[in-house]
Every structure is written in C-alpha cells, then in structure tokens.
C-alpha cells in the first residue's frame, strides 16, 4: 500500500509539474481549467483581452516548426491552417448551434485561413500555392468545404461571390466528444488530410501533393 | 500492486495532461492571437468601414504573467526572447515599410526581442515557420533596432501586441507585466 501511495504521489508531482511549466517551456501543455478560467481577461489588459475562443495554427508536415527547430526537417512546409477554437460548453453543435445548410466559418473570430506553400490537388482540382479562406456548409450527412479568396476578413460575413471551389466530403460520427473545435493535418499515402473535428462529428479533406 | 504500473501512469497522465479526451491537440496554455493594422481590420472590412487597405499583421502567442516577475527574471535581460510562446512570432507587411531608416520589403518575418532594463532590441529575421527562439539564427537577421521601454503603473496579465496609428504609419505596441514598448513603423 505504501508503494501504491508512493507511485501515485510521484506521478502526481510529475504531472502537476508538467502542467505548470513556466512560459519558456509551455508549448502544447494543455489547459485544465474550465472555459471561463482559461484566461485572465480582467481589467489588467488595457489593449486586448485574450479571446474566449483562442487562435491556433497547424502545419503540414505535422509539428513543422518544432521539427524545424530540432533540425529534423529541411524541406519547406506544405501548408498551414490558422483558425480559432470555439468550445462545445455542453451545447449541441451540429444541427443546433450550427444550422444545417448555413455557412459556418470553421472556427470563430477571424475567418479561417489556409495557406498552401506549394500547388496541391483536392478532388483532382489543382489549387495554386497561396492563401485562402476556408469555410464549411455543414449538412446532416456531409460537409461542403469551400475555398474563397477574400482573405483577411471576419468569419461571420464571408463573401460567397469570392468562392473558388466547393468540395463535398463525408462526415463521421465519433464515439467521443471533442470539446474544442480542432483542425489538424494527418499524413496519407499521397499527401495529407485536413482533419476537422468538433462535438461528435469529424470530417476529413484529402489534399494531394 | 500490479494495478499501479505503467497503465496507472498513463491514466494519470490522461487526467492531468489532456484537455481533450482524444489524440488531437488540446488548447494551448498560451493561446495564439492575431493583430492587424489597421486595428480590427477584418471586423471593419465586413462592416464596410475599412478606410484603408490592410497593411500588416502580427501572429503571436500570449503567455500570462500568472503572478511571476517577467522581465529580468522569467525573461532574462540580454537574451533573445521569442516575444510570445510556442511558434516564433510572425509579422507580415503587405507593402514595403520603413523601420527607422531601414527599408523593409513586404513579406513575412519572424520577430524577436532582446529585453534589457532600459531598452529592447527588436529583431526581424527571415527564418520562418519555426518554433520559439531556441534555434534563432542571427545570420538571418534583416534588422536590429533599439527601442526604449516604458514602465506601466498597472501590470498587463497576458502579453499583448497591437498597433497604434501615428503620423507616419503606426507603432507596434508590445506590453507585458509592467513594461510597454513601441516600435515605430513608417508606411509613407
């Protein structure tokens, strides 16, 4: 029993310390607190409060910037996505908070931005290297993913006359809920998939290069 | 006893170190943010209130003070600091600008600072898409410039970077804890 307590104690110390590294080391250390406590948005910031739905960035190759720092990669990145991460907070998301058939900004705040550092193909259509807005029209059984060239805009009013391409992709119900909307790349045999997941729904957009 | 083996370790790790109960990334402790100049450009744009084109933006992560002394302690004087957290802080100019007498061609740059008690050295560097300042390469610097520091009466909890309009362009304002600095950028 003493050993049991000992192991638990050591584990607890290890993980508490892992969640409480100083700023130099915090990287992907997760946040334990509830939504409202995540950030101290108190009066002490006269310039800009920290967003409730914070921004995040994903590269392909996965963890590109860390790998570059480690001199583990020499080639340029293929693409990155910059998006904000709303929280489920107990709400039903698809078909409720987000209406089926209505455009959704795939995030929060600024429109979600995807940048290809080289030409790629999506569903056999060529996409030129460059920066685009990416958004979604969710339906019950599929998502329509849209690339748009009206960059540097806010997500609530995307100008559909600037749409470039539409791609229908299937969705999958997940067994676990995703609390935070997540966009991340995962490698596939001829490129990578942009994985998009929130609540009980996951969709994957294959990108070939 | 066998119950408290690596499995326990993993379970406890899941308890303490996973904000999201699956293998996709949890929220960053120091969340990312973006500031545009003109300030709030994306919002102004959808309201048809933007009176000038977008000129620049900075993408950075926002560490929090959390009761710590920042400058001269957590962030050491005289050493290169990534002006944020996680990925290296990135500034992008959509047209050519000037910082002091230095012409900066439009484009993306990483941005670092060397904080000192009375001034910060601001560094623009061409090594993009990297992490922090851990492998910062001075050979890729395109600019180093010194700016004075201003002491604030009230401490700023989360590092903030924003822009303030000036006669010649704007200042990139950086503030954390009790320190504020401004980098003048000329767009004329």
Query: Which strand order does the major sheet of chain B show?
Result: 1-2-3-6-7-8-9
Structural class of chain B: mainly beta
What is the count of DSSP helices of chain A, taking H or I runs of 4+ residues?
2
Count of spatially separate domains of chain B: 1
Instruction: List SSEs of chain A in N-to-C order.
Output: HEHEEEEEEEE
Largest sheet of chain A: 7 strands, antiparallel
Instruction: Give the N-to-C terminal Cα separation of chain B.
Output: 72 Å
Low-confidence segments of chain B:
1-18
Q: What does the overall shape of chain A look like?
A: globular
Radius of gyration of chain B: 19 Å
Look at the structure and give the mean pLDDT of chain A.
Answer: 84
Strand order of the largest sheet of chain A: 1-2-3-6-7-8-9
Percentage of residues assigned to helices of chain B: under 10%
Percent helix of chain A, as a range, is: 10-25%
- Spatial gap, N to C terminus of chain A: 56 Å
Short note summarizing the structure:
Helix content of chain A is 11%, strand content 39%. Chain A has helices spanning 2-18, 64-69, and strands at residues 55-60, 79-84, 113-116, 120-122, 125-127, 130-138, 142-148, 163-188, 191-208.
């Amino acid at each position: 029993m003493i050993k049991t307590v000992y192991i638990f104690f050591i584990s607890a110390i290890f993980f508490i310390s892992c969640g409480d590294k100083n700023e130099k080391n915090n990287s992907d250390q997760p946040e334990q607190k509830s939504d409202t406590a995540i950030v101290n948005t108190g009066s002490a910031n006269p310039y800009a409060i920290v967003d409730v739905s914070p921004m995040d960035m994903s590269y392909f190759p996965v963890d590109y910037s860390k790998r570059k720092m480690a001199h583990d990669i020499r080639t340029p990145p293929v693409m990155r996505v910059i998006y904000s991460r709303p929280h489920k907070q107990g709400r039903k998301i698809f078909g409720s908070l987000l209406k089926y058939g209505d455009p959704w900004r795939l995030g929060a705040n600024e429109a979600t931005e995807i940048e290809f550092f080289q030409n790629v193909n999506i569903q056999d259509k060529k996409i030129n290297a460059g920066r685009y807005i990416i958004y979604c029209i969710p339906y019950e059984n599929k998502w329509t993913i849209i690339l748009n060239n009206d960059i540097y805009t806010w997500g609530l009013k995307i100008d559909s006359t600037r749409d470039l391409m539409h791609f229908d992709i299937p969705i999958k119900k997940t067994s676990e809920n995703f609390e935070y909307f997540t966009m991340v790349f995962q490698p596939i045999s001829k490129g990578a998939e942009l994985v998009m997941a929130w609540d009980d729904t996951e969709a994957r957009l294959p990108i070939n290069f | 006893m066998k119950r408290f083996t690596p499995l326990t370790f993993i379970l406890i790790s899941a308890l303490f170190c996973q904000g999201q109960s699956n293998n996709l990334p949890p929220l960053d402790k120091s969340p990312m943010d973006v500031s545009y100049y003109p300030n709030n450009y994306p919002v102004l744009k959808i309201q048809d209130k933007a009176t000038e084109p977008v000129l620049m933006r900075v993408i950075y992560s926002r560490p929090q003070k959390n009761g710590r002394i920042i400058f001269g302690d957590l962030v050491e004087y005289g050493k290169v600091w990534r002006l944020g957290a996680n990925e290296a802080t990135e500034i992008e100019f959509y047209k050519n600008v000037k910082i002091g007498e230095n012409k900066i061609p439009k484009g993306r740059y990483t941005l670092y600072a060397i904080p000192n008690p009375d001034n910060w050295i601001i560094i623009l560097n061409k090594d993009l898409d990297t992490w922090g300042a851990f492998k910062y390469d001075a050979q890729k610097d395109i600019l180093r410039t010194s700016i004075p520091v201003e002491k604030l009466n009230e401490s700023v909890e989360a590092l903030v970077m924003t822009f303030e309009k000036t006669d010649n362009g704007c200042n990139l304002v950086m503030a954390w804890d009790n320190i504020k600095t401004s980098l003048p950028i000329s767009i004329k």
